[in-house]
Design a protein that fits this description.
2 domains; about 25% strand; about 50% helix; alpha+beta; Alpha-Beta Plaits; elongated; single chain
Length: about 150
């Protein structure tokens, strides 16, 4: 995907400000497929959320596997002519064990490179609304009329 070329309608400090302008244009029946919101001065920010450990990996694996087991247990119970708690419990237990194994194996492999969890966010210094050539005057007129 390439950065759109055209006329700059405005530059905004935050994405919600730019989004609000696009929303105003959409409500005024402007052909919004003719514009783009472009973030400039991009910065990648990684926020470390916590240290990884064997205990966290095990708990996460058991919980996610148990959810899968609940789903499978309910599915099989609905297909069965009679509901049996044994089948449901076995599915939950097997799912939890499977999740535990997979999560611990994943943690063992990833631990060599990275012993923490994080979230990544891309931030922009500002956001520009860029219009295809020939649409700037109409967009400015619509924005001046709508609150």
């Amino acid at each position: 995907m390439t950065v759109p070329q055209g006329d700059v309608l405005g530059t905004y400090d935050s994405y919600p400000e730019a989004q609000q302008v696009v929303d105003r244009l959409a409500k005024a029946d402007f052909p919004i497929a003719k514009l783009a919101i472009v973030g400039n001065g991009l910065t990648s920010v990684e926020i470390v959320t916590r240290k990884r450990s064997w205990n966290r990996a095990a708990l996460s694996g058991v919980l996610s596997g148990a959810w899968l087991g609940i789903f499978i247990g309910l599915f099989f119970s609905l297909l069965s002519p009679t509901f049996t708690w044994q089948l449901f419990a076995a599915a939950v237990f097997i799912g939890a064990a499977f999740g535990l194994f997979l999560q611990l194996a994943s943690y063992a492999v990833a631990r060599r490179n990275r012993d923490f969890e994080s979230t990544t966010q891309v931030l922009a210094a500002n956001y520009q609304i860029i219009l295809e050539p020939g649409h700037l005057a109409r967009a400015q007129e619509l924005l001046s009329r709508t609150p």
